[in-house]
């Protein structure tokens, strides 16, 4: 078949990671490379002590071969995440995070745990953050109706998690409201 | 503050850090949480025009989430395919050169990896369209409007596929039924149509790429999305915004 069953209604986390890996990160290269033209743009030149911005997938690739250090983005550190977590637990709304933070954090922590300060702590904070936000989105389900639900500051990975259930729930509500209207129209 | 002070304006112009405003401006921000003014780092800073690859990724994700087939992007695709071809040729050329250094080796590897990544996206994009085309083949063949959205080869495929399935149904079952029951497009009252149509009431997650004009919701109210707004709503509500590229499905 043209598209495998699990991919028909949703996107897999791996595909989301692929999309997020197009974003640029800063690295500290350990090899030299001339400026090179890629389909997504031209990157380089890499000159060892100078930092350089390249797509995440390239950085991960270089890191695996031990040819660079990845400089984590501003939000991937203990202080920032701690602050977001406390905000997350004290306010009802979702706090603002980069749209694809989960994917980027995973890719960097998998490939370069030694480049992130206190990586274990960062990992557990990310996990706490995720759980706090999940609890909120479950509460948000109560507000679901058949027309619209605003989800400010929700992130791509979280949307993907909620997708099957929320879409189904909304479908059922649409059907119910339609029947209600039909019933009301037939009554008089 | 005494504005009659003769020095007031000159001091203001000099901007020496003693005026009350200056003190206020330089004062450390109160951290006791005022959620109305979060000192958030803006995360959407990149305002550069999309590269062709980013466009394709957006179209791919839109296609994956929308229940209906979206307009084909033949120009974009052919441009990217040309780019893939030229990159592959460059790689071939560099590889055949035996004197390539280690640095060259890395460049070749990256170019090749990227070509594979883009190929994956192109394939997945086309397969998603193919899946919808096969699912709604009969609907597409009875609807010239929808055919406008497909490329020529996609229309050909839909036609062949519809004919094949019709033939198959006829050979296996329909030929032994009474003639009045042999059709595949009966429209009986209160029974769902025999032709599968895209379900435009299916909900989608949508994110505004810019401030959007208001759209009408099923319950009669209007929704005006600001840039970055994320919402879950039936597909038909945002169909036009998606077509105009003002929102993206996520």
Automatic annotation (TrEMBL), chain A:
* Residues in GINS subunit domain copies: 75-172
Per the record's keyword annotation, is Nucleus included, yes or no?
yes
Query: Do the record's keywords include Oxidoreductase?
Result: no
Q: Where does this protein reside within or beyond the cell?
A: Nucleus
Residue ranges constituting the DNA replication complex GINS protein PSF2 N-terminal domain according to the UniProt record: 12-71
Single Gene Ontology BP term?
A: DNA replication
Judging by the UniProt lineage, the source's domain of life is Eukaryota
A GO cellular component annotation here is: GINS complex
Q: What is the first-listed, main subcellular location in coarse terms?
A: nucleus
Q: Which Pfam families match?
A: PSF2_N (PF25005), Sld5 (PF05916)
Q: Could you list this entry's UniProt keywords, alphabetically sorted.
A: Chromosome partition, DNA replication, Nucleus
This protein's assembly is summarised as: Component of the GINS complex.
Q: Which family does it belong to?
A: Belongs to the GINS2/PSF2 family.
Q: What is this protein called?
A: DNA replication complex GINS protein PSF2
Species in which this protein is naturally found:
Pisolithus microcarpus 441
UniProtKB/TrEMBL annotation, chain B:
Q: Which UniProt keywords apply?
A: DNA replication, Nucleus
* Leader sequence segment: none
What GO CC annotations are associated with the protein? Answer: GINS complex
Q: Where in the cell is it found?
A: Nucleus
Q: Where is the composition biased (Basic and acidic residues)?
A: 22-32
The organism's superkingdom is given as Eukaryota
Supply the Gene3D superfamilies for this chain. Answer: 1.20.58.1030
| Name of the featured protein | DNA replication complex GINS protein SLD5
- The organism named in the record is Pisolithus microcarpus 441
């Amino acid at each position: 078949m043209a598209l495998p069953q699990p991919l028909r209604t949703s996107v897999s986390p791996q595909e989301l990671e692929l999309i997020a890996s197009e974003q640029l990160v800063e690295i500290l290269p350990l090899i030299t490379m001339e400026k090179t033209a890629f389909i997504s743009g031209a990157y380089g030149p890499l000159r060892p002590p100078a930092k350089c911005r390249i797509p995440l997938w390239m950085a991960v690739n270089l890191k695996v071969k031990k040819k660079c250090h990845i400089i984590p983005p501003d939000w991937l550190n203990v202080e920032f995440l701690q602050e977001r977590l406390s905000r997350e637990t004290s306010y009802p709304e979702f706090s603002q995070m980069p749209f694809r933070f989960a994917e980027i954090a995973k890719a960097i922590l998998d490939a370069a745990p030694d480049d992130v300060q206190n990586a274990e702590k960062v990992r557990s904070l990310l996990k706490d953050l995720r759980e706090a936000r999940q609890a909120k989105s479950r509460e948000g389900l109560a507000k679901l109706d058949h027309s619209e639900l605003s989800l400010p500051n929700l992130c791509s990975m979280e949307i993907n998690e909620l997708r099957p259930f929320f879409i189904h729930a909304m479908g059922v509500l649409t059907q119910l409201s339609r029947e209600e209207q039909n019933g009301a129209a037939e009554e008089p | 503050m005494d504005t009659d002070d003769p020095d007031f304006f000159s001091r203001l112009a000099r901007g020496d850090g003693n005026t009350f405003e200056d003190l206020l401006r330089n004062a450390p921000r109160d951290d006791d949480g005022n959620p109305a003014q979060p000192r958030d780092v803006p995360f959407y800073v990149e305002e550069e025009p999309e590269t062709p690859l980013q466009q394709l990724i957006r179209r791919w994700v839109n296609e994956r989430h929308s229940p209906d087939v979206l307009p084909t992007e033949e120009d974009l695709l052919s441009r990217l395919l040309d780019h893939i071809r030229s990159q592959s040729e460059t790689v071939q050329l560099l590889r055949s050169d035996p004197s390539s250094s280690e640095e060259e080796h890395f460049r070749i590897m990256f170019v090749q990896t990227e070509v594979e990544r883009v190929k994956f996206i192109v394939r997945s994009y086309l397969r998603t369209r193919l899946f919808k085309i096969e699912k709604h083949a009969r609907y597409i063949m009875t609807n010239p409007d929808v055919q406008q959205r497909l490329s020529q080869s996609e229309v050909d495929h839909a036609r062949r596929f519809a004919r094949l399935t019709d033939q198959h149904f006829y050979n296996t079952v329909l030929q032994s039924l009474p003639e009045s029951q042999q059709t595949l497009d009966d429209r009986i009252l209160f029974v769902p149509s025999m032709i599968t149509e895209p379900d435009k009431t299916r909900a989608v997650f949508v994110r505004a790429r810019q401030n959007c004009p208001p759209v009408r919701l099923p319950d009669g109210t209007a929704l005006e999305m600001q840039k970055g707004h994320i919402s879950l709503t039936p597909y038909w509500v945002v169909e036009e915004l998606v077509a105009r590229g003002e929102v993206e499905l996520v």
